[in-house]
Amino acid sequence: MKQSITRGAALVVVLLAAFACLPLTAVTGARTSSAGYADESSESYRADRALEEGYGWGSPQVQMELRPSVPVDSAEATAVGRRLTDQVAHSPGVARALSWWTVKDKRLRSGDGRAVLLVARLTGDNARVEATAARLADRFGGQRFPFDITVTGRGPVNRDLAERSRQELLHAEQISVPLVALVLLFAFRTVVAAAVPLAIGVTSIAGTQIVLYGLTKVMEVSVFAPNIAVALALGLSVDYAMILVSRFREERAAGLDVQRAVGATLRTAGRTVLCSAAVVSLSLSVLLLFPIPFLRSLGAATVSVAVLAAITALVLVPLMLTAVGEHLERGPVPGLKHLTGQESAQRRGAWAAFTRWVPRRPVLALGASTAILVLLALPFARAEWGFIDERWLPSGSPQRAAAARVRAEFPLAAGVVPLVLLDRAPAGSTTAVRFAAALSKDPRLVSVSGPTGVFADGRRLAGPSSAQAPEGASRPAGTWFEITSRLADPASGQAKNLVHDLRGLQVPGGARVAGETALLVDTEHLLGKVAFRAAGTIAAVTGLMLFVYLRSVFIPVKALATNLLSMTAGFGAMVFLFQEGHLAQWLGGTATTFTDPLLPPLMFCIVFGLSMDYEVFMVARIREEYLRTGDNRAAITTGLQRTGRLITASCLALIAAVAPLTLSSLAVMQLVGTVLIISIVVDATVVRCLLVPAAMSLAGRWNWWSPLDRGDSHAASLSAAPTLQD
After folding, report:
1. Which of 280, 283, 467, 557 is 20 to 30 A removed from 303 (C-alpha atoms)?
2. Cα–Cα distance measured from residue 295 to residue 221, given in angstroms and rounded to the nearest whole number
3. C-alpha to C-alpha distance for 50 and 122, rounded to whole angstroms
4. Do 143 and 166 fall into the same domain?
């Protein structure tokens, strides 16, 4: 009795401590970063740093549209415009500011002559750039006679994305927890039984805040990490708790008392939870192989969450079951009849008939499921790559409207403007002059400007001036050029070709290219190179784990193949629903035009891990039945029947956990949530109900062949076989 009271008291303390950590949500969100999308070893990033440190030339992060109430060339507008430009230029964190009134550059005046663009180049790391952009927007935005000033650009857009993501985190938790509670009530049919996984889920959310807060102390954490991590924490922890509670109910129905039932649950279902958590964690850890802060921070956050979810479930669920085990079936939900695991497995009906049909028609089931998955994947062939920009904000966002207006009114200034750094050609040297003159003949370019002068059509139009020679430490060993192109979109194929051509120019020491398009080109190249290594790593590690756990050669190979197919629907959805905009209007946005290249590897690792999670659940049960009966077809049928209800409930709980992401105002969060839901549904239906059992039916006894097994050792294998609850 005293021991039971002590455990109950410990449980109460742990739960109260966890709930006390929930306010960390706001603190953690404020410490996250809206940057970190670049590989710091890439040529574009290093060239950008060299331009800033050696020449005082920062990134064009802020654009201000100045619309005066008087003519832009009037004395009043000119005087105030020059003074305003000077104030921006001397603001902390600003390397240089340019406007129509200071350089008379036609790119900085709108086509109708009624607006002027002020461009501020910022210096410093990502955090400093974001802070500077925020200060400039707060200080200069709005009405400043005679101007109506709208502040936009990469910095303010990133700030808007970050603020929306932080504000929506608490809102997402308020939606997901009640949805998960409804799923649990439907699955377990009693209030007490449903309350156990729900308490574990909320505790994991609180623990996630502690983990994320700790990560912000040691690394740059993406502003999107808390939203994704919280959704996974809730979904995985509830999933693991459901497995344990279901097994406990089965053991109790078999006649065991509470203590013995808890022990049996940990020996059987606990082993399954450990294996599932290991597979999910290993899949997510592949994100750490990518040298990009955005992916690495999400990898660290999601791996920590998967481990935390398993530990929370394995530690707290036994304590809770010990405390409430005698009362677990209290509080029946009106209108829902309670069914034990055995009754559920023995039910006959449409599902039972279906599970018998698949093993009898494996070729038809395999062909139909594969055709469906390939068809769903076809839109991914139309993917166009580009970084997240204002088009990923909701249609009604003021920042999106401002950025779109600047893009339309100042196409040259807002278009493709690469920076070229020549490390071995000093400003004014013959090499630098010849390079600029020859480059300016390119029909894709308007002008080539820098400390050497302004060139167009192969001729020097003007010498260097204060407009082209930014303040800062000059390096006589080299020089730089700003390329003004006729191309409007930095993510277009033509813009990428221009970067490749610039890098291929013959010049002593080579030409290093910086700018948004150059960064995109480098990122695509990096992801293409690392993706194969990452895919090989995840396949080898998870395959080896499944081989050891399930004692089979065929099952791990089949699992890798089917999991890859299960992700096709989600990848196709990225392009069809968001890039092309077929779902955007229903979610408050428009077509994003491009797909961010960092999203496919993120979604690959998450979906692959979750798919492997379900693979372990189902195949382990099928193996147990095969070892018991020796009948492959019967084992598949029984395994499907006995895991179907649990997998369905688990999928519904995970969908409920990630559903709030689809309600976000940001297209990136909508994409993550939608792709996860589609992938989960396809995996639980087409893959688990058709593809996997069909493949296993065709393989027959080869499903269970392993070089580790010697002779006919059914009894020994059965004693070591993993078991799953009904």
Report:
1. 557
2. 9
3. 14
4. no
User: Nearest-CA neighbor of 362 among 565, 724, 632?
Assistant: 632
For residue 146, cis peptide bond before it (omega within 30 degrees of 0): yes
Do 354 and 309 lie in one domain? The reply is yes
In the 8-state DSSP scheme, what is residue 383?
-
- 50/99 same-domain check: yes
pLDDT at 519: 92
pLDDT along the chain (726 residues), means of 10: 54 59 63 80 89 77 88 89 92 88 83 88 78 88 86 85 80 84 90 92 88 88 89 92 89 88 89 87 91 92 94 91 86 63 48 72 87 91 90 87 86 80 85 90 89 86 54 63 86 91 84 90 91 85 83 85 84 93 80 91 90 80 80 82 80 91 89 92 86 86 76 43 40
Structural domain includes residue 36: no
pLDDT score of 671: 93
Task: From 124, 152, 180, give the residue that closes a domain.
Answer: 152
Asked if residue 132 lies in contact with residue 157, where contact means CB atoms within 8 angstroms, the answer is no
Q: Give the residue numbers spanning the domain of 110.
A: 43-152
CA–CA gap between residue 66 and residue 386 (Å, rounded): 28
Neighbours of 461 (CB within 10 A): 12
Q: How many domains does the chain have?
A: 3
Burial class (CB in 10 A: 0-12, 13-18, 19+), 444: middle
One domain for residues 561 and 592 = yes
- Measured at the CA of 274, the angle between CA 269 and CA 277, to 5 degrees, comes to 120
pLDDT at 463: 65
Map residue 333 onto helix, strand or coil. Answer: coil
Distance CA 512, CA 47 (A): 6
| pTM score, whole prediction | 0.86
Closest CA to 425 of 446, 450, 456, 443: 450
DSSP letter at 189 equals: -
